[in-house]
Design a protein that fits this description.
274 residues; alpha/beta; Rossmann fold; 7 strands; binds S-adenosylmethionine
């Protein structure tokens, strides 16, 4: 049971974090915030939210560690590889319709494995269609709120563990041979890294043909999830694709603007006007 005092101290702490670092805590699920903050409290041997708030005032580094913990940036190349297999023909459709000029957004890109997976998927499409020279027309915007993740996406170099789901053939084709592996320049050229807060900012560009937002909305409360789904619907071009995480489901008013094309893989297509 949460005491009223504990609840007040928790609210005061999340307000302090929002004011100091701009993270809109009130858009995140409470239990998620509590769990993450408790991890840092245990790490520092602090037992109450009030004491932890005081600690934050004295220790700027702890703020950085807390934000890292709150923004949970677990990721992998080709995470749920079957999803990327299911997405491939859809990407091919977009590629043909846009003659390579596919505009894609990885929203909540963590350390870059997801946007580079998208870049590989586009490069593979170009290769299969015998149009590798057109890859330079494509663009993948990689955005996140987390400073450390963005730095890693900007200087991409990955340990072997990041590739366990990625087909070996693709690793060899698109990354340097030795770990830490770097993406080939053709991929780096099409990925643009931007700081962006999904809870408060408009889309970084529009329209997009493909939005991949996986394992991000799960941390937000329902009103924020609905708001984001509407933002994605507004931001996608007609016929554009939205890919969510395996356990994420589109709901709210935006639901009527999409068709669920691949239910298991959470691939949605924005309806085209009649
Ligand atoms: C679990 S990771 C998901 C990474 C990747 N999309 C994937 O599925 O492998 C969640 C990411 O969402 C980012 N994130 C959390 N809150 C955010 C916000 N308000 N705006 C943008 N990104 C946010 C985190 O920093 C983190 O990198």
């Amino acid at each position: 049971m949460k005491s009223e005092q504990d609840e007040l101290a928790f609210r005061a702490l999340t307000r302090k974090i929002t004011q100091a670092r701009g993270l809109a805590c009130d858009s995140y699920k409470d239990r998620c915030l509590r769990r993450r903050i408790s991890v840092r409290m245990r790490a520092r041997g602090v037992h109450t939210f009030a004491d932890y708030g005081r600690l934050l005032e004295e220790d700027a580094l702890e703020y950085d560690l807390l934000l890292d913990a709150l923004t949970i940036n677990v990721t992998k190349f080709f995470r749920n590889v079957e999803t990327w297999r299911a997405l491939a023909p859809w990407i091919e459709g977009l590629w043909k319709a846009r003659r390579g000029e596919v505009r894609a957004w990885s929203a909540g890109c963590a350390s870059g494995e997801e946007p580079y997976t998208m870049a590989v998927a586009l490069a593979e499409t170009a290769r299969r269609l015998g149009q590798p020279a057109l890859l330079g027309r494509a663009r993948v915007d990689a955005t996140d709120i987390d400073r450390a993740s963005l730095e890693r996406t900007r200087a991409p170099a990955y340990p072997e563990a990041a590739f366990t789901e990625m087909p070996a053939e693709l690793v060899h084709r698109y990354f340097t041979p030795e770990p830490p592996r770097r993406p080939v320049p053709e991929l780096q050229r099409i990925v643009r890294v931007l700081k962006h807060d999904l809870t408060s900012e408009p889309a970084p560009a529009a329209p997009y043909d493909l939005i991949v937002c996986r394992n991000v909305v799960i941390y937000f409360d329902r009103p924020m999830q609905e708001r984001l789904f509407t933002l994605f619907a507004d931001t996608l071009a007609p016929g554009g694709l939205l890919l969510l995480g395996k356990v994420e489901t589109l709901f709210g008013p935006a639901r009527d603007r999409f068709r669920l094309e691949e239910p298991r893989e959470r691939i949605y297509q924005k309806a085209t006007p009649a």
